[in-house]
Amino acid sequence: MKMRFIILISFFVIGAMAGKYSKEMNEQKASDNSNNQVEFRIAKLNQIWEKAIRMQLAPVRLSELHSDLKIQEKDELQWKKLKAEGLDEDGEREAKLRRNFNIILAKYGMDGKKDTRTLDSNRLKDHDVNEGDTFDDPRLDKLWNKAKTSGKFSDEELQTLQREFKHHKDRINEYNIVMDTVSRTEEIHKNVISPLEGEVKEHVLHQKHADLKQRMRDLNQGFERLRKISHEGYSADSEFKEPRVIELWEMAKRSNLSEDELDSLKEELRHFETKVEKHQHYQEQLELSHQKLKHVEALGDKEHIMRNKEKYNTLAEKAREMGYKMKKHLQDLTNKISQNGLRHNEL
């Protein structure tokens, strides 16, 4: 009887340890062969990150990817909690997560397709505009060439306008990616057998079409704004300089917010613009540090290499941290404006 009791206790202890071990293995960050912790709590995001490192993406681009993956990680972990609570029954949030993940893959050339979209060389184009700096869209190229030869813009204003054009080009790329995922979903939908499954996928497809329509409206409004600025120049009372901030402000003005709400939001957007500018500063410093590190590595001075590598790694970490904070703030502001606008339209 005593022996049987000991065996039962042993099984209980081993079982508890196994459960604890499994939980720790699921929750902890996986480690590589050199015991360095990897970046993300979700396996597929780690795989993308490791692939990006193997691809040797340029430092600023790698930093941008890291920020995008951190946002994706945050959203997926939040969704898992909601799903565990029985929410998101229609699968709308899940579909949006999958769509955002597909955008990340395509944006960084990891979707397994030969990318016909022009990927940035990661050289920060804050200075002279070279002849090859086109936007892969005839309307944008024509508008840009007119603007830069019009004499209506100072050098600083041209740099701001160029960032706005590039931002619009990125939005076009995102639209094309979403349109591609909608086409693939429609193909899958044709092969559905179960009526219940068909209803769910019909709903997901409807959400994707609604997203496409909104993106197209935003693109048209964005292009009209670029066309107006290109012909008339920047007005003296322009509120903001950064494209993402301008886009948010234009969205807010269309959302039927009250004057007090707009004033409050304007102040918040000013703080956000400062954050964007600070992030850009770190990206510039990261690029310069990378160029210096490559130069030092070519010379072969080990001590000098180590010092520059430490500085580069510190800047890379700071740029990633700033990038995440900036993109999370952008996400929060976008949701705030969208929800407030929707609330006012329903009243």
UniProtKB/TrEMBL annotation:
Residues 134-347 form the Alpha-2-macroglobulin RAP C-terminal domain. Residues 1-18 form the signal peptide. GO terms for cellular component: cis-Golgi network; endoplasmic reticulum-Golgi intermediate compartment; endosome; plasma membrane; rough endoplasmic reticulum lumen. One of its GO terms (molecular function) is receptor antagonist activity. Residues 7-116 form the Alpha-2-macroglobulin receptor-associated protein domain. Pfam families: Alpha-2-MRAP_C, Alpha-2-MRAP_N. CDD domains: RAP_D1 (cd14806), RAP_D2 (cd14807), RAP_D3 (cd14808). The keyword Signal applies. Keywords: Coiled coil, Signal. GO terms for biological process: negative regulation of receptor internalization; negative regulation of very-low-density lipoprotein particle clearance. Residues 255-282 form a coiled coil. PANTHER family: ALPHA-2-MACROGLOBULIN RECEPTOR-ASSOCIATED PROTEIN. This is Alpha-2-macroglobulin receptor-associated protein. The lineage of its organism: Eukaryota, Metazoa, Chordata, Craniata, Vertebrata.
